[in-house]
Amino acid sequence: MKLILLGAPGSGKGTQAAYISEKYDLPHISTGEIFRENIKEMTPLGVKVKAVMDTGNLCPDDLTVELVKERLSKPDCKNGYLLDGFPRNIYQASALDEIDAPDKVINLDIDLSKIEHRITGRRSCAKCNGSYHVDFIGNVNTCPNCGSELTIRKDDTVEVVKERLAVYEVQTAPLIDYYKAQGKLVNVDGDKSIKEVFDEIVKVLG
Ligand code: AP5
Ligand code: MG
User: Fold this and answer.
1) Given pLDDT bands bounded at 50, 70 and 90, which one contains residue 126?
2) Confidence class of residue 186 from pLDDT cuts 50, 70 and 90?
């Protein structure tokens, strides 16, 4: 199964991807996580993308497509993939169609007015990539999954969230029609509880 999780910043892509990846044994590929790991390690790629990520804009298309192409060529992708945060615009979507086209695209549909709350209350684990919210875990410093330190992402500020949303609306939202036209789009209500959203995805995937 070749799956894409589409949705606005904070719509729950990372949260759902962890469950989907485990249930369906698919490699979870998040371009955002790959970039963040490179920034943490200060690799040449990380140095190149840090400034643009900090402002909430998209990293260069050619570099991102190359990175995904290389990742999809790894042996763990031979039975499928679960892409989270890629593609982000029409250019990336048509590049993916050339590399290894998806079977299904799940669009996590969320009321955009809820995003700021979700993102400013998020706590992230840099070790296991867990994503939590203070509403559910309280103001704790350790990851409920692996016990490592929880951090706040550098781009999870009110100002940067506004920019990320603007980028989403102009560049990424058109992918909804792109995949609808291919007959691959499935809308899932992302405003429900984490468990209800996952149950709906499982129903859709069968
Ligand atoms: P990326 O890391 O992909 O960030 P994003 O798309 O902005 O999405 P987020 O990770 O913020 O949100 P999410 O949908 O994963 O939500 P989550 O599950 O964590 O990209 C970051 C940056 O990297 C980009 O801005 C860009 O610079 C660069 N980049 C990445 N990919 C790129 C590409 N392809 N091309 C170019 N540049 C790229 O949930 C959010 C919060 O909500 C959490 O606190 C969670 O606990 C909570 N929550 C989740 N589900 C629910 C629910 N159902 N009910 C209540 N709360 C919930
Ligand atoms: Mg994410």
Assistant:
1) confident
2) very high
Average pLDDT for 126-137: 91
Averaged over 78-96, what is the pLDDT?
Answer: 98
The yes-or-no answer on residue 153 being catalytic is yes
φ and ψ of 6, to 5 deg: -110, 150
Å from CA of 97 to ligand 2 middle? 22
Q: Is 123 a catalytic residue?
A: no
Beta strands in 79-191 (DSSP E): 81-84, 104-109, 122-125, 131-133, 150-151, 185-189
| Cα 27 to middle of ligand 1, angstroms | 17
**Is the CB of residue 158 less than 8 Å from the CB of residue 120?**
yes
**Cα(90)–Cα(160) distance, integer angstroms:** 23
Indicate if ligand 1 lies below 6 Å from the C-beta of 130: no
| Closest to 36 in 3D by CA, of 73, 67, 3, 2 | 67
Residue 129 pLDDT grade (very low, low, confident, very high; cuts 50, 70, 90):
confident
118 lines ligand 1 (CB under 6 A): yes
Q: Which of 2, 36, 118, 122 is catalytic?
A: 122
Longest CA pairwise span in the chain (Å): 45
pLDDT at 206: 87
